[in-house]
Amino acid sequence: MNDFRPDREQTRALFARFALARTRHEGDPERADPDYERLRDELVVVHLNLVRFLAVRFANRGEPLDDLIQVGTVGLLKAIDRFDLDRGVEFTTYATPTIVGEIKRYFRDKGWAVKVPRRLQELNLAVNRTSDKLAIELGRSPTVGELAKRLDAGEDEILEAQELGQAYNLLSLDSELSGEADKKSQTLAETVGIADAGLELLEDRANIERAFEVLSGRERVIIYLRFYEAVSQTEIAKRLNVSQMHVSRLQAKALEKLRSVLVE
Amino acid sequence: MNQAVEQSFPEFVELRIPSRAEWVALARLAAATIANRLRFSIEEIEDVKLAVAEACTAVIQYDGHGEFIELSCEAQGDSLRIRVRDGGRQAALSGVKERIGFEEARVAGLGVFLIRTLMDEVSYDVHPKNGTELLMVKRLAGRPD
User: What is the C-alpha to C-alpha distance for residues A80 and A116, in angstroms, rounded to an integer?
Assistant: First the structure.
C-alpha cells in the first residue's frame, strides 16, 4: 500500500538519462533508438501505480477500470514526453493533472455528463427493486449490507445512491429532456401541467405515508393489503395466520390511529 | 427555485465524523449537497466529492490520525470552501514536527496530488494543538447563464 510512489532520486536519475536519449532521438527521429524506447518503457512501468491509483478513483463513474487505466496511461506517456527536470517539480506533481485530464476527457467524449446521474438513478432504481425482492425472500426489510452484497456495490454507494437518486430527481425539473448539447430541448419542467388534481392526491399520499409511521408492522401490512391491494379481510387473515375477527380488530385500531394523526 | 437558492447565501455546513472509512460517504454527501446548492455541474460535484473523500482518506490512513474528522463547507459567492481537519486526542498530542499528515503520508501524498488537480486552491495549516487542516477551494466556472 505504501509503494505507490517510486523513489524520488531514482526517478530523477531515470529522467536525466531519458532526457539525453530524447534529445538524441529528436535529433534523428528516423533512426531506431533502443535506449530511448527502453527508458521510456521503464518510466511508464515505474509510474503505472500512479495511473492505477488515479483510475480507481474514477471507476465509480460508470466506465470499466481497465479502460480508465488505458487512457490514463496515454496521459502518463504524454507527461513523460513533456516533462522537464529543470522545472524543479516532482514528476508526480506534473503528471497527475495530465493523467486526470486524459481520464476526464475520455468521460466527456463518452457523454459522461449524462452518464453520472443516469448511473446513480440506475443504482437507485436497482436498490428499490432489489429491496422489494429481498424483503419477500427474507420476510423482512433487508439491511444495507444485504443490498450491497446482492447488487455488488459498496454499502456507502447504496446509501449515496438512495440519497442522490432523490436529489437528482428533484433537480431534474430544470434539466433538458434530450441530451444533445447543440439543441435547446424541452425541459422537464415545461412538460409538467399546472393545477393537477393529482398533485393534491400526491400530498395526501405523502401525509398518509407519514401517518403510517405510527402503525405497528402488522397494522401496516393489514392497511396496505386491505386498501392498496384490495385484499379481503378473510384473505389477510389467512396470510397472517390469524382469525378474521382479529384482522378486523387490528384494522379498526389502525384506522383509528391514522385518523388521529391525520386530523392533527 | 433558483432564485430562492441564490438569496439564501452564504451557507455553511459543519460535520464531525469518526476517523473511519465508513463515515467518508457522509462527508462526500455533505460536500456534494452544498456544491449542488452553488449550482456546480455534475462533473464538478463529482470532483468535489472525490477531493473530500481523498482528504478524509488521507487523514484515516495516516498512522497518527486523531479520533475524528471535522469537515466544514462554506458557500461564499461563487466559491466553495471546504476545510478538513484531523482532530481528537492523538492529533492534539502530537507535536508539529510529527504532524505532517497530509503532506507526507505516502498514500495521502498521492491523494493530495489528486486534490490539487480537482480543486482550484489547496493549502494546509498545521496547528500545534488541533492537528492538520486542509483547505480547498473550488470556484464556479463561467456559466453560460
Answer: 31
